[in-house]
Structure formats: structure tokens, C-alpha cells
């Protein structure tokens, strides 16, 4: 089956679209990317999305307008990627604007903006959307979801394998080995914490919105990370929560950035960026240390995806802090880093129409297996 996956993540840069063909066993499919496109959001749209994640209040009319705009932009991305309408099915994540993790007796919550029926009718094809709500209704976090498909798409090797996504938020997938004592283990995954969210906000603020990100980590590489402050940040309760664990810009956004800037005191923008970038690498390193202490799992390799893998300074910090683990770009195994998440939601959409249920208990914490996504026909 040919499926089109559409995804916009917490960085809210725009929409990644991928047209992929699936064949064979859904648990170990043969897949081939036929085309891919990145479709940038207009500046004003991205600004509003990020402000909503920081608590901006808008009226109902503007909510509707934004929902229609995001739906129409997804339709444009779909047409750009699949101009000949080869896809039989569309899997569209929509744009997350708020995420609440389960805590104590309070259930989680999540809000993605998308009008699924409108998208289905614009494209005249079946759309699977709203991938997170059912998981949350079953006691799960609703995130991260990409780890649900990693094992099927990427496969196992002769040792524990990790996949690290460095988007706005960092998350990890841990895939068991295909032989040995641990081969009967389950795939696990969780959100680590901020990846690019704080870095991007810091550079936008320091450049008066002229820059969206620290290209190649150039500015961070000119600074000196404040190691003592990072050590204190790593003691925060969130980073010691045992998975399942999820987060978003609500927790690691502009308010959090201002708090950390205050804790750092008067530092140059280069030192600030260096500290925030090293903080991201340190969070991942600490999580991998906890993984060994709690479950005696040590990774053979760590494949890195997402926009952060283009940050040379961040990758160097990861290599320095995760010594003993082979760290490489996920592109090296034939999976385009930029389109990993869009591919994942294409896969979940395919599984939905097949009626395939997924046990997400070791990743999101949901209480029973479920079929992810809601189907709407044109």
C-alpha cells in the first residue's frame, strides 16, 4: 500500500511529507520512500503556534481560522509530495499546541490542531489522524509515539540499539537485540527533555527573530558551557522520573528559558547557547546511565535523527558524554533523518486500516493494546 505521512513537530518549523510504499508483514514490512518534501510554515503561523504553546489566549474565531489554515497547509504539503495522487491513504499528525503528562491522579491530555474531515475532502482520500487521544484515554501519556514503529522499520542487531530524536524535544527508543538472553525483551521509549526547544528560543531572542536556530552549532561552539549549573539542572525531578515519561514546550519553553538564564546570571550569548546545547547532550547521557543502573542495558549503538543531528557541536557533545557507544546519523542505515517522524505516522496509519493493535505499555504506559488514530473518509 502507498501511504502519505504528514508530520509537524514541537519545533513548529513546518510540515514534513513522505510518500512511502509498504509491502509484506506489518511487523517487519518492506518499505520504500517514493518522495519526500519539507513544507515551511509562514512566519506568522509559526509564531502563533509557539505563542499558543506558551499560554497565548485567542478567541474561538481565531482558533477556527488557525485550524483551517494548518489543515490547508497540510493539504498543500500532501499535494507537493504526491502530485499524482498515488497514495491510497493519508496519515496526518496535525500540530501539537499543548501536552499534559499524567501526574498522580490526573490523567494526561493533548491537543493537536487539524480538521481531519476537511483534509480528507480536500485531498479526496481517507485520512487517519488524532493519533494520541485513545492512548491517553487508556491511561497512557500519548507520547512519544514514533518509538512504536522503530523496531518494525529499523530492526534489531546483535546488541541493544538506541534511536535518539533531537527535535524540539529529545526522545529515545531502545530496541532489544535479536539474539541472546535479552531477545525476548520489549522495545521501550520515553521523552528525555529539551533538545532544540530552549536552544532555538534563545537564539531567536538574541537575534530579534532573525535566526531560528544555531546553524551547525557555530555560536555554541564559541562559548564555554557552565558545567556546575548543568549539574544542578540535571537534579530536577523531571529528569529522574522513571519512564513512561513525556513532555513538551509547555514545560521546556520560554518561561523555562528565562528561569535558566536567571540561574546562569550574566553570560554571553555564546556561553548561553553552549550551556543549553551541552545540557541537551547531558540529559541524554544521564538517561543512558540510568538505563544501565535500572535495567542493566548498555547500548551497542545510538542512531540520531531530527534537526539536532545537523548541529555539529551538539553531536560532538553527545559523543564526548556517551563514550563507549557508537553514535551515528540515522541516514547511514538508509532512513532519512528529516522524514523519520512522517514515516512513522504513515506506518501508524497503515496499521490502522489493517486493524493492527499495538502494545504501547512499555512506551506510553497505556493500559491495553490499541489501534492508533481515527479514520475519516471523504
Structure in words:
With 378 residues, the chain is an alpha/beta fold. The chain has two domains: 2-145 and 339-376, Nucleotidyltransferase, domain 5, CATH 3.30.420.40; 147-333, ATPase, nucleotide binding domain (Nucleotidyltransferase, domain 5). It has twelve helices and twelve strands. The strands form two sheets. Strands 1, 2, 3, 4, 5, 6 and 12 form a seven-stranded mixed beta sheet that branches. A hairpin with an 8-residue loop joins strand 4 (89-100) and strand 5 (109-113). Helix 6 (197-206) runs antiparallel to helix 10 and helix 10 (269-295) runs parallel beside helix 11 (312-321). The chain is globular, with a radius of gyration of 20 Å. The protein starts with a strand and ends with a strand. The model has no long low-confidence stretch (mean pLDDT 96).
In short:
Helices cover 37% and strands 21% of the residues. It is α/β, with parallel strands linked by helices and 378 residues long.
The total count of strands amounts to: 12
Strand content: 15-25%
Q: Roughly how many Å apart are the termini?
A: 18 Å
Helix content: 25-40%
Content-based structural category: alpha/beta
SSE order in H/E notation?
EEEHHEEHEHHEEEHHHHHEHEHE
Basic shape? globular
Task: Assign the CATH topology of the largest domain.
Answer: Nucleotidyltransferase, domain 5
Radius of gyration: 20 Å
Characterize the quaternary organization of these chains.
single chain
**CATH architecture classification of the largest domain:** 2-Layer Sandwich
Largest sheet: 7 strands, mixed
Amino acid at each position: 500500500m502507498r501511504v502519505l505521512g504528514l508530520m509537524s513537530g514541537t519545533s513548529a518549523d513546518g510540515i514534513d511529507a513522505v510518500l512511502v510504499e509498504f509491502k509484506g508483514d506489518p511487523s517487519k514490512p518492506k518499505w520504500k520512500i517514493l518522495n519526500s518534501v519539507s513544507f515551511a510554515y509562514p512566519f506568522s503561523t509559526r509564531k502563533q503556534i509557539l505563542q499558543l504553546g506558551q499560554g497565548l489566549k485567542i478567541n474561538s474565531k481565531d482558533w477556527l481560522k488557525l485550524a483551517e489554515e494548518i489543515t490547508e497547509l497540510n493539504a498543500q504539503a500532501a499535494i507537493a509530495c504526491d502530485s499524482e495522487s498515488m497514495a491510497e491513504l493519508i496519515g496526518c499528525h496535525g500540530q501539537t499546541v499543548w501536552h499534559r503528562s499524567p501526574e498522580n491522579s490526573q490523567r494526561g491530555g493533548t491537543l493537536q490542531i487539524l480538521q481531519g474531515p476537511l483534509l480528507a475532502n480536500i485531498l479526496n482520500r481517507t485520512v487517519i489522524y488524532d493519533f494520541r487521544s485513545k492512548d491517553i484515554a487508556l491511561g497512557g501519556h500519548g507520547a512519544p509515539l514514533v518509538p512504536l514503529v522503530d523496531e518494525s522499520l529499523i530492526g534489531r542487531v546483535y546488541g541493544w540499539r538506541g534511536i535518539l530524536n533531537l527535535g524540539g524535544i529529545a526522545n529515545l527508543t531502545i530496541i532489544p537485540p535479536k539474539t541472546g538472553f535479552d531477545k525476548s525483551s520489549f522495545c521501550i521509549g520515553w521523552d528525555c527533555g529539551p533538545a532544540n526547544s530552549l536552544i532555538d528560543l534563545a537564539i531567536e531572542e538574541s537575534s530579534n527573530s532573525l535566526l531560528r536556530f544555531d546553524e551547525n552549532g557555530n555560536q555554541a561552539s564559541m562559548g564555554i558551557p557552565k558545567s556546575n549549573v548543568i549539574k544542578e539542572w540535571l537534579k530536577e525531578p523531571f529528569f529522574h522520573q522513571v519512564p513512561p515519561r513525556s513532555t513538551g514546550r509547555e514545560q521546556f519553553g520560554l518561561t523555562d528559558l528565562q528561569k535558566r538564564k536567571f540561574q546562569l546570571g550574566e553570560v554571553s550569548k555564546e556561553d548561553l547557547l553552549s550551556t543549553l546545547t551541552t545540557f541537551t547532550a547531558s540529559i541524554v547521557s544521564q538517561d543512558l546511565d540510568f538505563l544501565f543502573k535500572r535495567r542493566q542495558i548498555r547500548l551497542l549503538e545510538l542512531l540520531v535523527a531530527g534537526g539536532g543531528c545537523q548541529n555539529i557541536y551538539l553531536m560532538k557533545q553527545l559523543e564526548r558524554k556517551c563514550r563507549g557507544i557508537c553514535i551515528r546519523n540515522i541516514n547511514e542505515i538508509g532512513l532519512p533523518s528529516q522524514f523519520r517522524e512522517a514515516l512513522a505516522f504513515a506506518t501508524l496509519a497503515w496499521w490502522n486500516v489493517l486493524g493492527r493493535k499495538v502494545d504501547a505499555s512499555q512506551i506510553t504506559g497505556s493500559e491495553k493494546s490499541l489501534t492508533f488514530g481515527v479514520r475519516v473518509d471523504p
